[in-house]
Amino acid sequence: MDDKISENFLKQVLSKPESGKSENFLKQVLSKPELKINKKSQVTIFVVLGLMLIVLILIFLLLLRPAETEAYDEENPQAYIESCTRDATEEAIEIISEHGGDIHPRGSVLYKGIDRTFLCYNSQLYKKCINQRPLLIEHIQKEIENYIYPKVYECFQALQKNLEQKYEIENPDDLKINARIQSRHVSVEIDKYFSMKNEEDKKEFEKFTMNLVHPMYNLAEIAMEIVNQEAKYCDFNAVGYMVLHNEFDIKRFITGDSNTLYTIEERASGQKFTFAVRSCVLPPGL
Questions:
Q1: Which of 23, 75, 146, 170 is geometrically suited to a Cys-Cys bond with 19, CB 3.0 to 4.6 A?
Q2: Is 266 found in the same domain as 125?
């Protein structure tokens, strides 16, 4: 009703003789029925489009949802051991990344309530620091192995407990773990005999594997580069490095005790590695 009143009013205004040629043009435009606005039709269209958008979003989220794996899959114990090992490995990497390469830091400084390992250190004034972890990558691999060993052992014990009601289980204590970190990839190989037998079938396993996408190797590689430059030049050009490698962010903070804290972050994943350096320290007041 309001639309018709407004239209009639506009037509009356345009009917005045002094309105000119432009008014005649507007009269012709208003007289076309296909240009008349129907508010109810517009509302209906927007509602339909909104519902279609919601449905598309729900379908997209369902497609992104990872497939759920049965914790105890009687047909595939590898799936359970892999999942259990992944959880333990992620825990180890998180601790190592916060502490600067160690599960239990030895030679560290407290920063933001967490002990950060000195990867390069010299307590003497003016002296260049000495690399404390020349084989950082190998050290991290060993730290992962030592941390996850008892947890993986418990994984096998839990698997046996769940299956022994239906199967005859053979689960000797022998267990060997080999962790490897490579570019954006962490892998764990487990050498362990495990068998399950019933009246119908017998299944035997001798090796279990776990693969994880993580930039631990890349972060450690950058940390070694920083340490090498600190040991040689008493400094590291973080800005210059980030210009050449913009996928990483490097932050440096110097404490009141002249300790330098480095935090390396992979921008895409948000994964970080923090460690400490004490090098070429000047006496107080200089």
A1: 23
A2: yes
- Specify the DSSP class assigned to residue 105: -
For the entire predicted model, the pTM comes to 0.73
Q: Could you tell me how far CA 132 lies from the centroid of its own chain?
A: 28
**CA distances in angstroms from 15 to 18, 22, 29, 31, listed in the order given:** 9, 11, 14, 13
pLDDT band at 283 (very low <50, low <70, confident <90, very high): confident
The pLDDT confidence band at residue 33, using thresholds 50, 70 and 90, is low
CA angle 57/59/65 to nearest 5° reads 105
Look at the chain and report how many structural domains it folds into: 2
Q: How many degrees, rounded to 5, is the angle at CA 45 between CA 41 and CA 47?
A: 115
Q: Compute φ and ψ for 15, nearest 5 degrees.
A: -75, -10
DSSP state of 1: -
Residue 71 above 80 pLDDT? no
- 10 Å CB burial of residue 85 (0-12, 13-18, 19+) is buried
Percentage above 90 pLDDT, the chain: 68
User: What three-state secondary structure class fits 24?
Assistant: helix
